Amino acid sequence: MWLFKWMNYEASQCTWEDSSKLPTNCDRFIAEFERTARAEGFVVGDPMGYIVLQEGARAGWRRPGWY
């Protein structure tokens, strides 16, 4: 699952999207996300792992199932 921040929308309006439904032109955005995640100290590459970047956390987003 990916938490998408859509262009021209606030981070609080992100939506969770299944990996199988991602648009085909997301490669550069995923690469940017992974660079930022590593810079924030996350380990990237665990298919069962969840990463919510600082921007998303500030907007109140958490891993699905976290309350």
Automatic annotation (TrEMBL):
UniProt-listed Pfam families: Chromo
InterPro entries: Chromo-like_dom_sf, Chromo/chromo_shadow_dom, Chromo_domain
Record-annotated Chromo domain positions: 1-35
Gene3D superfamilies: 2.40.50.40
Gene Ontology terms describing biological process: chromatin remodeling
Protein name (record): Chromo domain-containing protein
Species for this entry: Phanerochaete carnosa (strain HHB-10118-sp) (White-rot fungus)
